[in-house]
Design brief:
13 helices; 2 strands
Length: 294
């Protein structure tokens, strides 16, 4: 489930970058559209099938509000800001320092045992990500993009840690729906919907790279971002947290960087160097090592 989530997230990065670079939809607006659209779809499905799962106990409300704001609203927005201003690989590399924070929190705050093999797996995965992103090629990085990526790492760590706790008492579908609802409400206050550039959704844009000759309306790409780009991967990721600890789920999630680089190569024409291929292999070794650290 964690691996499948990484696949969906990786493709979503390329789709989102096309929207951000080819249309007038900004990172903040795309975040609002993504959260609100996904919430409405999930809320409708749950209301029609199992409405009881939408009930919220007063005791769990503060945690759900925190999770929705930090784990969903901030993670999504900061991710879009980072990949808009930086190469996708660099932006993801900064964000996916989150597993380090997850492991440190689990060990130092929750006093959970983190085996030495897990630390070795984490080191391998981070080294592999550095190779995949070819950090030495980007000596001058956009300061705002770097800041967004690093803050996103903290928000993503919160997503994994709080998610591990929350999925112990609530199913992944309702947790995702409520959290997205909190995020949607936040963005509706920050930027009211009556100011949304709806005309931009009707624009037709090129898909760039290998698909440059193909054009699609922005609304069609946005539908992909809402469904396979948000609902599917987040549900899979939260579902994985019911079976694996946050430390290992976060390490498996690093696969997204490797897959995103492959998508960028096949779709956007970004070439993969020998160092990137080696880095991808190192990340896979780290993930496999993490899965044996039980």
């Amino acid at each position: 489930m964690a691996t499948a989530a990484a696949v969906f997230f990786a493709v979503n990065g390329a789709v989102s970058k096309v929207i951000l670079t080819e249309s007038e939809v900004t990172a903040l607006r795309l975040t609002e559209l993504r959260a609100t659209g996904a919430f409405l779809v999930l809320a409708a499905l749950l209301a029609l099938t199992v409405p009881s799962r939408l009930r919220i106990d007063r005791d769990e409300l503060p945690l759900l509000v925190l999770y929705g704001i930090v784990g969903f609203a901030l993670v999504q927005w900061l991710y879009f800001v980072a990949i808009e201003r930086l190469p996708i690989g660099i932006g993801l590399l900064l964000e996916f320092t989150a597993p380090v924070l997850v492991a440190l929190w689990a060990r130092l705050v929750w006093h959970e045992p983190v085996r030495r093999r897990a630390w070795a797996a984490l080191a391998l995965a981070l080294a592999g990500l550095a190779l995949v992103a070819e950090v030495w090629q980007e000596l001058r990085l956009d300061a705002l993009g770097v800041a967004a990526g690093l803050i996103a790492a903290g928000a993503l760590a919160t997503y994994f840690l709080v998610g591990e706790h929350a999925t112990g008492t609530r199913d992944a579908g309702s947790l995702l729906c409520v959290s997205l609802g909190v995020a949607a409400a936040l963005w509706a206050v920050v930027q009211p919907w009556w100011t949304f550039p709806f005309a931009a959704l009707g624009e037709t844009v090129s898909l760039q790279g290998a698909l440059e000759s193909t054009s699609l309306p922005v609304w069609a790409l946005s539908v992909w971002v809402i469904g396979p780009g948000t609902i599917a991967p987040f549900a899979l990721s939260l579902g994985a947290l019911r079976h694996l600890p946050a430390t290992r789920v976060s390490i498996v999630a690093m696969l997204e960087v490797v897959l995103a680089s492959i998508v960028a190569w096949a779709w956007l024409g970004e070439t993969l160097s020998a160092a990137q291929l080696i880095g991808g292999g190192v990340v896979l070794v780290g993930i496999l090592l993490a899965q044996t650290s039980r």
